[in-house]
Specification:
Blueprint (H helix, E strand, L loop, with lengths): L1 E5 L2 H14 L16 H17 L3 E2 L11 H4 L6 H21 L4 H14 L2 H12 L7 E7 L8 E6 L2 E8 L5 H17 L9 H8 L5 H24 L8 H4 L2 H4 L1 H15 L5 H12 L4 H5 L4 H16 L3 H30 L12 H10 L4 H12 L1 H13 L11 H11 L5 H15 L12 H9 L3 H7 L2 H15 L22 H4 L54 E7 L2 E7 L5 H12 L21 E3 L1 E3 L3 E4 L29 E4 L11 E4 L11 E6 L2 H12 L4 E10 L1
Parallel strand pairs: 1-3, 2-4, 3-5
Antiparallel strand pairs: 4-5, 6-7, 6-14, 7-13, 8-14, 9-10, 10-12, 11-12, 11-13
Helix pairs in contact: 1-4, 2-4, 5-7, 6-7, 6-9, 7-9, 9-12, 12-13, 15-16, 15-22, 15-23, 15-24, 16-18, 16-21, 17-19, 18-19, 19-20, 20-21, 21-22, 22-23
Length: 737
């Protein structure tokens, strides 16, 4: 399967709007449409849902054939797509004036990406080995490849569908660059090969069904995820044969870490086939043998890091009590545990550094400003690996610490600065292994953000609280079966009058090399069920492939409970009102401190100057009321009046963010609601807006913390929204009990 590069301005526009509404990787990425979006623009969501009923997860191919949004309806030949197309046309027409200004700024990136793809991926280099690995026939079929500057993420890639067949694909060339872009394109071509319709006898899907049969949910899920891993491994291998420094997407973009156990099995055998050491049948047979040893649930369910923490702390406790067996077990496990934790944290540090693309760095040292700019060229996880390799682990982690603690503070960096600092001390051999592991779990307890990217952290806090309280019984309920057995044996020995603590302690554990390959060579939790560090508290027989009690149950979805870092210095109010003194008149507001105590307190603190804020114009601590002298920078008649940005552009804040307080019984069905603007979930800062009409499409996205109190004030809001020029907010006065 070959590709030809194509370009479509309407596809660019649609994917950019998709990313703006529901597809940015984080609240901190640059956005181009002002939020909240207008009702017409928000119709795009409903249009996508309508399309999905007919084309699944892809997009209709005619989207790339239109020259203007209004041409789309005429190109529809499937009545199931007509209603959704009408909605999409309305949304694109509303968003086009703004997004059309942003898209040309990425032309140089697109041109560079096109040249890189032509250099990396010629059919002679990839077609035969890709088809051989996937068991598909080489065909003359050609797909359209669209390198687009903005696409929804994850995964920033997708297919174009016509009459149920894949006719094209798109890849975000702003996020994926160089060898990573080639890897992403090859991955998509691999999936297109598998879905091409023709299924020869040695097709990868057929081979996996034959070796790993079964129709239970976990059995089907195992085959799907394994196929994903093998396709990504194959793409990464082909690119790495051209660029030896390439770090495959299966690793750096997260599949390896999200499905650690299944990836470990594939990594043992599939690269040997790709290198030519063993044939394809032998590799598949060996993988099937390994996977058949345990229930599919073992390889598909998420790793439970709370079980790992319980194992570590109980083994430490037993070792301190003189249990030589436990001490020896901890000694053998510790190097692998350190490698696993260091590799995991290294990957997520790179991920978190990508949140600072919009950080204002002009007030910081040039070296740090250049580092933040460079780390955000493409996917930060990829760039971080390169910069760390080029600059050295210690210097790179110093810059990462400074980035988190400096311009990154506004975007949640205060939680990650101590993580990067701890990693730097570890690679500089300033932290013993046991202290490093304990620091990892301590920082998880304090920050709640280290393991939730790829693992199920539902019970993590309970285990770490138990460790802090020396609650051994709770730790035992989360520990692996092997550690529970060691604890039971220790208690029996003590009860029989033969204390296990008699005798010498085991030697100190050996250190592992800092940085690669130690950080990434060890797969996460490759142990068998029930053993130390396996990441699951179940008994050994719980994953028996023939008697798994949950083998036929629905696949369990990974849980990632969000930690909400509310301020501990909350001031509460029984009643609260505010007056916005503008140059067009006063706006009296009734606030709801009972429903939104933190948001109300934040607004009062900024209005009165009692809360510390950073002036985005100078980078220094501000004085007085934050809102004094600001303007209503966004005015949409009949929809919204928005202010609270000292920059006057819609991109400024007070130098910090607070979480949302969205009340389920308070919506935008009524006009003149007062709400906090944001850039996505839990990213409220200083900006606020007042609606002028019912706007139910905003429900569940923004914190409503008040409303306009009287008709005269409503008239002032309407006048502000209709003003052709920015309206000045002189000051805010607060009346509080």
């Amino acid at each position: 399967m070959k590709f030809r590069q194509k370009r479509s301005s309407i596809l660019d526009l649609a994917l950019a709007l998709h990313r703006e509404l529901i597809g940015r990787t984080g609240s901190w990425e640059p956005n181009f449409l002002p939020r909240p979006v207008t009702p017409e623009t928000d119709l795009f969501r409903d249009g996508l849902r309508s399309w999905a009923k007919a084309v699944g997860s892809g997009l209709p191919a005619f989207l790339a054939a239109a020259r203007r949004p209004e041409d789309l309806v005429d190109l529809v030949d499937d009545e199931r797509l007509r209603h959704g197309t009408t909605l999409v046309t309305t949304a694109l027409t509303a968003a086009a004036p703004t997004l059309a200004e942003a898209l040309p700024g990425f032309e140089d990136i697109r041109k560079q990406a096109a040249a890189e793809i032509n250099d990396f991926l010629t059919p002679a280099r990839y077609l035969t080995p890709l088809c051989a690995a996937l068991g598909t026939a080489e065909t003359e079929r050609t797909l359209d490849l669209h390198l687009v500057p903005l696409a929804p993420a994850p995964p920033a890639t997708g297919f174009l569908i016509d009459a149920g067949k894949i006719t094209g694909l798109y890849v975000d060339c702003r996020r994926f660059r160089g060898s990573t872009l080639a890897d992403a394109v090859l991955t998509m071509l691999g999936w297109a090969q598998l879905k091409s319709g023709a299924i020869p006898e040695n097709h990868l899907s057929t081979e996996l069904v034959r070796r790993l049969p079964g129709s239970a949910p976990y059995q089907r899920r195992l085959r799907v995820v394994l196929t994903k891993i093998l396709v990504e491994m194959t793409a990464g291998h082909l690119v790495r044969s051209r660029d030896a420094t390439h770090r495959p997407c299966v690793d750096v973009l997260g599949t390896k870490w999200r499905y650690a156990r299944l990836h470990a099995v594939a990594e043992r055998h599939w690269p040997r086939h790709l290198d030519g050491d063993i044939d394809r049948d032998e590799a598949l047979n060996m993988m099937a043998a390994d996977l058949s040893a345990h229930s599919p649930r073992w390889f598909v369910d998420s790793v439970d890091p709370s079980s790992t923490a319980a194992d570590f702390y109980l083994l430490e406790w037993l070792t301190a009590a003189g249990d030589r067996t436990a001490g020896a077990r901890l000694f053998r496990w510790l190097p692998d545990l350190c490698a696993e934790l260091a590799g995991h944290l290294d990957n997520v540090i790179g991920n978190e550094l990508g949140h600072y693309e919009r950080a204002r760095t002009q007030h910081y040292p040039q070296e740090l400003a250049d580092f933040i700019t460079e780390i955000n060229q493409g996917d930060s996880r990829v760039t971080w690996q390169r910069l760390r390799r080029e600059r050295g682990h210690g210097p790179a982690l110093r810059l990462a610490t400074d980035a988190f603690a400096g311009p990154g503070v506004e975007f949640g960096g205060e939680a990650w600065a101590p993580v990067a600092a701890m990693m730097r001390r570890y690679v500089r051999h300033e932290l013993p292994d046991r202290v490093f592991v304990d620091q990892c779990f301590t920082l998880e307890h304090n920050n709640g953000s280290l393991f939730d990217k790829y693992h199920d952290t539902t019970t993590m806090r309970a285990v770490l609280d138990a460790q802090a309280a020396t609650d051994l019984d709770t730790l035992l309920t989360h520990a692996s079966a092997e550690v529970r057995e060691l604890c039971h044996a220790h208690r029996l020995a003590s009860a029989e009058g033969h204390p296990a603590w008699l005798g010498s302690s085991p030697p100190a554990p050996a250190r592992i090399p800092a940085g690669p390959p130690g950080w990434s060579a060890a797969g996460l939790h490759t142990s068998a069920p029930g053993t130390v560090g396996c990441g699951d508290p179940s008994d050994r027989n719980a994953f028996d492939p023939l008697h798994d009690p949950m083998g036929d149950s629905p696949v369990r979805v990974r849980q990632t409970p969000a930690r909400r870092p509310f301020s501990s210095s909350l001031r509460t109010y029984r009643s609260l009102a505010a007056v916005l003194h503008t140059e067009l008149g006063d706006i009296h507001l009734a606030l709801h401190p009972d429903e939104t105590p933190y948001t109300a307190d934040n607004f009062v603190g900024l209005a009165t100057g009692s809360r510390t804020w950073t002036d985005p114009l100078t980078g220094t601590t501000g004085e007085g009321g934050f809102y004094d002298g600001t303007v209503f920078h966004r005015r949409v008649p009949g929809f919204v009046a928005q202010g609270g940005d000292r920059l006057g552009t819609g991109h400024g804040s007070a130098g910090y963010r607070i979480p949302d307080e969205i009340h389920p019984d308070r919506g935008f069905e009524q006009p003149f609601r007062l709400a906090m603007a944001n850039l996505g979930r839990d990213s409220t800062g200083s900006q606020f807006f007042i609606t002028l009409a019912p706007a139910p499409h905003l429900n569940g996205q923004y914190t409503i913390f008040g409303e306009v109190a009287d008709d005269r004030s409503k008239g002032v809001v309407e006048a502000i929204a209709s003003s052709a020029t920015a309206v000045r907010l002189e000051r805010v006065t607060i009346s509080a009990t």
